Structure formats: C-alpha cells, structure tokens
Amino acid sequence: MSLPMTATPQPKTLYVFGSLNMDLVCRTPRLPQPGETVLGTHFETCPGGKGANQAVAAARLGAAVAMVGRVGNDAFGQQLLDGLQQAEIDVSGVAVDAEAPTGVAAIAVNDSGHNTIVVVPGANGRVDDRDVDRLVARLRPGDSLLMQFEVPLPTVIAAANAAKAQNVTVIVDPAPARADLPAEFFRALDILTPNQVEASQLTGLNVTDIATASEAAYQLVQRGVAIAIVKLGELGVVVADRQRTFHQPALPVKVVDTVAAGDAFNGGLAVALAEGMALDAAVEFASAVAAASVMATGAQASMPARSRVAALQIGFKHL
Fold first, then answer.
1. Domains along the chain?
2. Which of 155, 146, 151, 135 is nearest to 16 (CA)?
3. pLDDT of 61-94, one tens digit each?
4. 133 is an active site residue
5. At CA 289, angle to CA 286 and CA 291, rounded to 5?
6. C-alpha to C-alpha distance for 249 and 257, rounded to whole angstroms
7. How far apart are CA 3 and CA 40, in angstroms?
8. Model pLDDT for residues 204-240, shown as the tens digit of each residue
9. Which of 23, 143, 263, 280 is catalytic?
10. What single string gives the DSSP state of each residue in 122-141?
11. What is the pTM of this model?
12. Do the Cβ atoms of 237 and 248 come closer than 8 Å?
C-alpha cells in the first residue's frame, strides 16, 4: 500500500525590489559647508544602493534573498552582480540595461562617522512595469518584500499593491524622503520605516526626539500603515501600531561609519519577522544589526553576520 503524496512546503523568500549603486566614498575630517572645498583622506568604491544593501543585510543573517532591479551594461554593474552572488543572493531578477549606466552614489564620511550622500540613479531610474511584472511573477503568499524610493515611485506603488493582493509582507524604507505619496499607498504597507528627516517630510512635523517621533509614527498608522517605525540614529527607534507605541533604545556602540545603518536595520527587521519573531523582539534584533553595522566601514561590507549580531546582543544583556 502506497502512502499518499504530500506537497513539500515551499521555502519563503525575501524579495528586494530596488536600487543597486556603486558607492564612491570620500573620507574627510569634516563635511564641507555649501560652497566649501575640503581635503579628503581616503577614497574607495564600494557596492551599495539601498536595495542591494538591504538584500546583503538579510542574506548575511541567513535569509533566502532575491534581488529585482536594474544595472547598466558596464563594469560597475558587473561588480555589483558579482558581489550579490558572492553573498548567495539570487540575481536572476536583475536586468542589465544597455541604455543607462549603473547608478552611483557620491558619499562623504567625516571622522565622526556621519555622512552626506548624492545619488545619480542611472539604470535605477529606468525601472518600469516590466520589472514589476518580473517581481510579481515570483512572489508567493508568505514571502516578504523590501522596497525603497531609489527607483521610480509608480513602480514601488504598483509592486506594493500587487504584493498586498498576494498576502506578501510589504516593508518600505521611504528614502530618499518625499511628500507626494498617494493616500492609498499607505494602506498597502505592512511596515514603513522612515528616519527622522523622512518622517518629518511625510507628516509635516519637526521630528527631533522620541516624543515627536512617537507623534509622527502615530500619524502614519492613522493613514493606514499597519506598523510605523521611526529611526532616530543614536536615540534608537520609535514603533507604533494600532494598539500601542514604544521606544527601542539604540545599543551604545562606538560609531565608525553610519553609511547603510538604516538598511541594516530594515534587513534585520525583515529577517526577524519572517522567522516569526514578535514585533518587540524583531525590533530589538534589527537594532542590534544596525548597531553592529556602524562599528565597521562601508555599506554592504559593514553588514554583519548572524553570529556577530548574537554576540553583540549577549554582550549587552550581560552588562
């Protein structure tokens, strides 16, 4: 007698729909004022782009990750794809655009680890409905989708709506900041994670501390977002959903470089929630991922392995 065949559960995938950039990083004792030239001390090229950064963050933590976006048909584009593949990320959804160069980000970092960033989108700016269709064809119920605003907003909105219809968890990092989001967009999001500048832009509030961040997060939930998380750097994060608001302090680590700390947080948050962690625990974990990332230089290079995050959490719990 043969036993009935049972379907093997499909593993859940964390999809990232967003940007891939080559970061051109200049290190300098201090950031220049408008119109001022300062001498730098070091220059390097580093794989980046908020989408690719979040993909690497999640993959280093052990998630099955797939990237969907565009690069140019140039040396930077090939380097970015090679780097993602080395991180065991599926790049079959990344198109090579023959009509635009790979996106770049010019980054200045000072001795305190703070930075200014100018992004030239290149191929990222040509992401369109074909890329959305390529993404949507891969999504399955229970998957997660991470997005940002370094690709055209209409594609982000279309992807969010399609993912919501397929019971996919949608997490959006609204960077760079913008205030022209349609009201219905918020209702398609499970989680929105602005920093204080972006939260100010979205709500019209002057977000400077925990109290104003709490009000901004509350307002975003009132607009339809299931969970709003306002990132405040060294002050930690404020989280709001329909039942409560709470503050998660940042771990007091020595800051070397804050580039991509927000991307580290989002990658960690997506992984933790996909693994079934409760919201409080997921936010605590994501905060530890971000803390570990600022202790190293670079964007993708600073994304920590799971063991490093665990050691950091254990170390502070024993203090």
1. 14-314 (3.40.1190.20)
2. 146
3. 999 999 999 999 999 999 999 999 999 999 999 9
4. no
5. 110
6. 19
7. 69
8. 999 999 999 999 999 999 999 999 999 999 999 999 9
9. 263
10. GGGGG--HHHHHHHHTT--T
11. 0.90
12. yes
